[in-house]
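Quick bug: Sugar O-acetyltransferase output formatted oddly.
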Amino acid sequence: MKTIFEKDLSGEIVSPNEPGYEALITDIFATIRTATEMNTGYRTPEEVHEYMSRILGKPLEESTTVLPPLYIDYGQPVTIGKGCFIQQCCTFFGRGGITIGDEVFIGPKVNLITINHDPDPENRSATYGRPIVIEDKAWIGINSTILPGVRIGYGAIVGASSVVTKDVPPMTVVAGNPAKFIKKIETGKDINDKLD
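Here's what came back:
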């Protein structure tokens, strides 16, 4: 029989009435407590790394920068790669699993949401998870929301204030609500030409 944590990561429905749910809530509140401590007052980069390592349950890569505040419900199923830069006021609902590759830029106020509710109003308190994967060198613009089950491809850009409901192919730009394809990303051109 799967634990409630395994059910979360496998995408099964999790009900507040089932055994183990209380343990999940206890872990969530412990994570929120640690994140709140990190978010309250000034913290040196070294202190932020220590807090993030506690939240994730594994060391945060030294080359990765996280600027508090970061709001996170459950850090154990979250993996953050090397050379990432995560701006202030981001929210990570990590229960369904979040994988952030290397050299990923995440703008301020970005929401990574891996949990959704049962659409049936009689069972709406039940939840299910779907993982989010952000591949290497992707860039998520300010105030964007990535919904459960989405994969952001290598080098892709998500424009500011986008709501991403579907996978984003590598080396493309998407934007809008819902996010739609804007263009392919070209390499090897002068930066002034790329800005058009």
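Actually, after a second look the formatting is fine. The chain has four helices and 18 strands. Closing.
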